[in-house]
């Protein structure tokens, strides 16, 4: 079996260009014309590779690295070996991410899985759909009547863009995903298998459960990323909204009427019940559950596996089940641990 490399650098980066992008000066002995052709971990990097380090666990690996250039924070700069050019920056990981995107632009968002340009054979685009120039539609994809798709967007194989859906420019709609009753902004990435705009879970309960028609939409603003197999239900009577720049991991459930602010981070396994509001810059750790009709304030952070059943103040850090301020939660855990230890000693 062959051993393919899926991401190869499109072009190298000179040391001078790297320093300019990082906003730092080169050491006097460094050659600004030196070209790096790849990026790698500090353990695996070679003389033509860029690496970074900002975690004390990798101090020994940093001291032994063979990387051509290493981005480091000031506290670790003294451990960079003599054969490696040290570029000292405040946030090595962010600078590394930006440079990695320049080396591997094709890894920034999914492209055509068929290597196609334009409408591939086997794609189904309704005559009443409107596609700007530069749209790619892979085999098996469906674009429904009245749908509009902006320039530079890629619709993956077997994806469905439903009737009247709007998709902005430079988006990537992953294989097998479905969009219905939705307005999608620019530069949005929807990974394979995601479902956006289907029915919310709404029933009038009784001896028989009467279905409540879900007549709202989903609005996804610019620069949002939606992970694989994530579901975002359309609103019941108002819109479900995902704010600009928000990043949603795989396997997340977002119910009807939820409003998520700008630049939130929602990690895998989260479930958000209907009509809940997340203000800007909220972070939900993995497997957090949020009940309906609550508000999580701007910049709040919720620890993984917590259960939120009430409003959370802005800027706070909560955890536990039910979730509470982390200091209270830690005190409870410590008290329980001491009680259990004391009980175990009494039983001996």
TrEMBL record:
Q: Which reaction does it catalyse?
A: a UDP-3-O-[(3R)-3-hydroxyacyl]-alpha-D-glucosamine + a (3R)-hydroxyacyl-[ACP] = a UDP-2-N,3-O-bis[(3R)-3-hydroxyacyl]-alpha-D-glucosamine + holo-[ACP] + H(+)
Q: Which CDD domains match?
A: LbH_LpxD
Q: In which pathway does it act?
A: Bacterial outer membrane biogenesis; LPS lipid A biosynthesis
Task: Enumerate the InterPro entries for this protein.
Answer: Hexapep (IPR001451), Hexapep_transf_CS (IPR018357), LpxD (IPR007691), Trimer_LpxA-like_sf (IPR011004), UDP_GlcNAc_AcTrfase_non-rep (IPR020573)
EC number, UniProt record: 2.3.1.191
Per its UniProt record, what Pfam families does this chain match? Hexapep, LpxD
Q: Active-site positions, per UniProt?
A: 256
Is this entry keyworded Mitochondrion? no
Alphabetical keyword list: Acyltransferase, Lipid A biosynthesis, Lipid biosynthesis, Lipid metabolism, Repeat, Transferase
For the protein in the UniProt heading, the enzyme class is: transferase
- Domain UDP-3-O-[3-hydroxymyristoyl] glucosamine N-acyltransferase non-repeat region spans what residues? 35-100
Give the highest taxon in the source lineage: Bacteria
UniProt signal peptide: none
Q: Which family does it belong to?
A: Belongs to the transferase hexapeptide repeat family. LpxD subfamily.
| Job description of the protein | Catalyzes the N-acylation of UDP-3-O-acylglucosamine using 3-hydroxyacyl-ACP as the acyl donor. Is involved in the biosynthesis of lipid A, a phosphorylated glycolipid that anchors the lipopolysaccharide to the outer membrane of the cell.
Can you state the subunit structure given in the record?
Answer: Homotrimer.
The name on file for this protein is: UDP-3-O-acylglucosamine N-acyltransferase
State the gene name recorded for this protein. lpxD
């Amino acid at each position: 079996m062959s051993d393919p490399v899926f991401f190869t650098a499109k072009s190298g980066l000179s040391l001078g260009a790297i320093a300019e992008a990082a906003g730092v000066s080169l050491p006097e002995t460094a050659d600004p014309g030196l070209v790096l052709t790849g990026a790698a971990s500090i353990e695996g990097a070679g003389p033509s590779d860029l690496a970074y380090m900002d975690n004390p666990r990798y101090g020994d690996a940093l001291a032994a690295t063979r990387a051509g250039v290493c981005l480091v924070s000031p506290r670790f700069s003294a451990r960079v070996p003599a054969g490696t050019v040290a570029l000292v920056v405040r946030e090595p990981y962010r600078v590394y991410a930006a440079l990695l995107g320049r080396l591997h632009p094709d890894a920034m968002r999914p492209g055509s899985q068929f290597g196609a340009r334009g409408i591939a054979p086997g794609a189904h685009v309704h005559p009443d759909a409107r596609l700007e120039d530069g749209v790619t539609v892979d085999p098996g994809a469906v674009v429904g009547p009245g749908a509009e798709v902006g320039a530079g967007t890629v619709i993956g194989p077997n994806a469905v863009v439903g009737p009247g859906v709007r998709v902005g420019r430079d988006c990537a709609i992953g294989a097998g995903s479905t969009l219905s009753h939705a307005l999608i902004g620019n530069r949005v990435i929807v990974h394979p298998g995601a479902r956006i705009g289907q029915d919310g879970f709404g029933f009038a309960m009784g001896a028989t459960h009467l279905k409540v028609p879900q007549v709202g939409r989903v609005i996804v603003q610019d620069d949002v990323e939606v992970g694989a197999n994530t579901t975002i239900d359309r609103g019941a009577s108002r819109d479900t909204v995902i704010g600009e720049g928000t990043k949603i991991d795989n396997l997340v459930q977002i119910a009807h009427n939820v409003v998520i602010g700008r630049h939130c981070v929602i990690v895998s396994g989260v479930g958000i019940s209907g009509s809940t509001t997340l203000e800007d810059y909220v972070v939900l750790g993995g497997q957090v559950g949020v009940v309906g009709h609550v508000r999580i304030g701007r910049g709040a952070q919720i620890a993984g596996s917590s259960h939120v059943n009430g409003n959370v103040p802005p800027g706070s850090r909560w955890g536990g089940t039910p979730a509470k301020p982390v200091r209270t939660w830690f005190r409870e855990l410590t008290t329980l641990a001491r009680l259990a230890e004391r009980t175990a000693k009494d039983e001996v």
